[in-house]
Amino acid sequence: MPQSTAQDSRIRKRPTRRPGYRRLFALPGARAFTTGNLLARLPTGMFSVSAVVMIAGSRGSYALAGAVTATGLAATALAGPFLARLVDRHGQARIALPATVVSVLGSLALLLCVRCDAPDWTLFAAYAATATTPNIGGLSRARWAHLLRDDPGALHTANAFEQAADELCFMLGPVLASFLAGTFFPEAGTLTGAVLLLAGMLLFTAQRATEPPPAARSRAPSPLRGRGIPALLVCFTATGAVFGSMEVVTIAYADAQGQRGAAGAVLALQAAGSCAAGLAYGALEPAGPRLVRCLAAMAALMTLPWAAAGTGSLPVLAGALLVAGMATAPTMVTAMALVQRHTPDGRLNEGMSLMVTGLLAGIACGSATGGWATERLSPVTAFAVPAAAAFLALLVGAAGGGERARRRPRH
Length: 411
Prior knowledge:
Elements: H1 3-13, H2 21-24, H3 30-41, H4 47-59, H5 62-90, H6 92-115, H7 120-128, H8 136-147, H9 152-183, H10 188-205, H11 229-256, H12 263-282, H13 291-301, H14 303-309, H15 314-324, H16 328-342, H17 348-376, H18 384-400
Helix pairs in contact: 3-8, 3-10, 4-5, 4-6, 4-9, 4-10, 5-6, 5-7, 5-17, 6-7, 6-10, 8-9, 9-10, 9-12, 9-16, 11-12, 11-16, 11-17, 11-18, 12-15, 12-16, 13-16, 13-18, 14-15
Protein name: MFS transporter
Pfam families: MFS_1
InterPro entries: MFS, MFS_trans_sf
């Protein structure tokens, strides 16, 4: 290739100026599919709380409510990667919308079973059907990856926005669910969530111009065979353990202080810190792989709640959680960017869904470990669990992290 031709090629491939958030949503169709996705994503933070309130209020058993929601979580972890593989092969509209309809029917069935005082096993069966809920955030990230495949800087900004949206939905969802159940009737949260999920998915899948093309005959290997991907999966699992254990031990700590009602607001500060940090992180120019640095920051900042808990002051703990949360969104954004970069073409939704599965498994394990530590040790000592999980993520990232996968070409 002549030198001038090579230079022209490099100029064409170089983005002129990395768009910020406003220019990002100036892309044709971006606002419409983002609006639909946010409507559909908000209920993900509502359903578990709504189910617990609804079941515990009707049956008088938090143990039963917890078992039902845990069954739904396990079913989602198992069904998620298979459903994402179908999305990759056949397209988002053809798979995600019917799967959402099945999930909505499962939520309505749960509502009716509770309302009609059906046997306990029907609650498990109905809530398990909600496992067909697609990885809604992953669907949106896949669209950004398709639209911005030639502009890594803009894709970095889009991934940061998506992570901030996740934090916002998980922060507002439980609040909205609790408000609806307490203001109207116990089933109001589940009913509203089902309506929002279906309406949002209808709007999202109607935007066909931005939908990634299906890869029906893709012979790409499993995402798990990608170099660095297994290590990233372990990092996501350990990060999920940070989230799950922090929630449980914070509630136990607030309860021990006689302020259990304030636990939700305290945890919301952690999500708020993560949301703000994610948006700020997206506004920065990406400077190459920096997952290990993000993991190191998360491991360091997760020691702050442990130290703050020793003061016996819930406001001090709240401030520590706000600061600690600022490390989680950059870590998730960087890790998900590596997953997108090194998952084989035609398997992107599956790759991201595997990470969500790892995250959910980590949340479940972290919740169990945090609960054990609060009962066997003390609520203050139990804050060592999320700190240890963050340190484990750092060790895995440093030893075999996805940054090494940067040298691996995509198929």
